[in-house]
Automatic annotation (TrEMBL):
UniProt protein name: Peptidase M13 N-terminal domain-containing protein
An example Gene Ontology CC term for this record: plasma membrane
Source organism (scientific name): Mytilus edulis (Blue mussel)
Gene3D superfamilies: Collagenase (Catalytic Domain), Neutral endopeptidase , domain2
Keywords: Membrane, Transmembrane, Transmembrane helix
Domain Peptidase M13 N-terminal: 90-227
Keyword presence, ATP-binding: no
Amino acid sequence: MTEEYKQFDSAKTDKIPIVPGLVKHISGLKFTELISIIVIFVVSLVCVVFVILFTTGKPTVVVEENVCVTAACLKSASYVVGNMNKSVDPCKNFYKYACGGFTNNNRLDSETYSKTVYSKLYYENEEKLKNILESPVVNGNDHSAERKLKDMFASCTNSYLKERAKGYPFLKKILPNTGGWYVLGTWNSSTWNMQNALEKVHMDYWTNALFRFRVATDWNDWKKRVIEACIHVNVYQDFDL
Ligand SMILES: *[C@@H]1O[C@H](CO)[C@@H](O)[C@H](O)[C@H]1NC(C)=O
Ligand SMILES: *[C@@H]1O[C@H](CO)[C@@H](O)[C@H](O)[C@H]1NC(C)=O
């Protein structure tokens, strides 16, 4: 008789030990320990069943060849998918299926009366241009177009400085150069010359006064270009002279 049988006998049970080692163990366990072992066994069994089910079925991630997975491609793909509404049946309403997500992702608010794919692109581009114009100047020499552009942008958008300067640039720098203003008593009618004043405003300040110039195709000969002067009413409305 082996060691296990001897111990089994000493437990004084009349059950036939099928697996002597196991029975010897079980007989020495408490009820809670027994329950734990059964639970662990069942959980392991369920895991094994799941693993078998998933490995024999279709793989969940299909890695196809020749599919672009760069950040830009993934971004575009997610944008397109995000603008779809896949819960709509494409055979019933293809437009809603393909574009239904767009209205959901682009709610209108009290300040916006319309949003389109193009208007979104427009505003995104504006944002990009703003970032470029606000970035530090790389080529800062005297003739640098980059520096001029960024300086000009900064001068228009620095509202704190504009607020502090108030009318100073106009009153002290521009008015004296164009012959003064009768309201301030700085205008002298005997010395003021309209031609000179217009020249200054158009050429030095790049501002249209009374009329504006433009280069256009000659109406009589389309191979020629002519300089046209138009009455300047406002930016959107011009009357040709
Ligand atoms: C998709 O369409 C259904 C049915 O028209 C609608 O109830 C749901 O809100 C839409 N979901 C999105 C995300 O647009
Ligand atoms: C206007 O200019 C003339 C010519 O220079 C001068 O004689 C006259 O005193 C000036 N008038 C005023 C009010 O400054």
